[in-house]
Amino acid sequence: MSSAPGGAGSPSPSRDQHSGSGGAADEPVAPSTGTSGTGTSDTETSGTEVPDADPAAGRGLGGVLRQDEFSVADAIGGPRGIIESALPTLLFIVLFVATGSVTVASVTAVAVVAVFLLVRIVQRQSPSTVIGGLLGVGLGAVLAIRSGDGTDFYAPGIAINAVTLLILLISLIARRPLIGLVIGVLDTRVQDWAEDRDARTVYTRATLLFVVLYAAKLAVQVPLLLTGHVAALGVAKLAMGLPAFAVIAYLVWLMHRALLARRDRG
């Protein structure tokens, strides 16, 4: 869930991950769907993957869950998704360090996301993820320019992380782990997960993995925000964004595939 998500977009445990293109907000948790959503193809109960008409449709957590081999690139949205997610934050860090100007760094980050949005519109692709990123980066830029404090650029993303963590914890307390709800929608083979004790256990543990991820983000980023470490906060955001999401996505994929294998044997 941005965090997704350090792209803009997280939960979404949804990227749309994933996040989208932002520098201020993180990728959502699991529902992050990469650059184009969760994909339109379905998978047979046997596990045979049905090819997608759109090459990007198999990206994001939803697409990866239906694959027999885990792909880091697909999980985090492919090369385009990585660029759209990381570049605004990276440019903000570099320009802030080089010029010391919050305005220059913020305006450039917003301009880059605007270009991403324009390109998607021209190519007649879904702009939804980039719009989310633009809102996150734009809000962060406005806050930073108004205050003159570069750390405010990251405030929306940190707020999203906190809300995401709260939602994850509430879902666990309610015994409806969020990752189970998300995967039940993304993969029709486990739509009945809530009635299956084994599946509930698996997706509870998967949700706990995301709880640890978002709690770690807050534990690292909030002190940096409060102490005004602009560049360090940006680096932490990038390091704990897409790379960390890819690791958690892989672990969730392993747990999901093991559950499907047990169901097939049963």
Automatic annotation (TrEMBL):
Which organism is this entry from?
Answer: Brachybacterium fresconis
- Recorded coiled-coil stretches: none
Which key words are in the record? Membrane, Transmembrane, Transmembrane helix
The cross-references to InterPro entries, in alphabetical order and at most eight, read:
UCP010219
Q: What is this protein called?
A: DUF3159 domain-containing protein
Residue spans of biased composition, Low complexity class: 1-14, 32-49
Transmembrane intervals: 90-118, 130-147, 153-174, 206-226, 232-255
Region Disordered: start-end pairs: 1-59
One Pfam family in the UniProt entry: DUF3159
